[in-house]
Specification:
Radius of gyration: 20 Å
Shape: elongated
Helix content: 25-40%
Order of helices and strands: HHHEEEEEEEE
Structural class: alpha+beta
Oligomer: single chain
Number of strands: 8
Amino acid sequence: MTTEDRTLTVAEAYEAAYRVIWHYTEREPLSESLQLMLVAMEPADDYAQTADPASWEDWLQSVSEVGQSPVPRFHRALVMPGTTDRLALVPSGDGHYLTMVAQRVDGSEVWSASPPGGDKDAWVSIRIEGNAVLANSFSGWLVRFDAASGRELQRHFTKW
């Protein structure tokens, strides 16, 4: 039996999830929040016992949700340079990112942008370089925006 074909018990799957996070923190040792999460999740000999008992309950709830509801997506956000504003990719119900939005701390919108390919396209990554936002779309466009206004400065097709 290959690793891909192996069926895990709920307890074994919990340990596997713990190990995935552990390996990630070994590669990214400055991730304090993940290290704190590992401390809370650390399995005891009795899998119903963890350093934080709520971790096991969260795990059981997560197991019960598999196949029953959409996978939650992280709301990706960056801090805009020289401000407290945030730049975020907003997930749609299907897990794609159809809108990029710059928001003030109070949640009000500064500007927003849709991917160049319209409703059949999605943003896949964003980054900030100086006073510009660079965003990659699924359809292959790299778009440069003015970080303050959201005005499109340049568009370059990156797929061959």
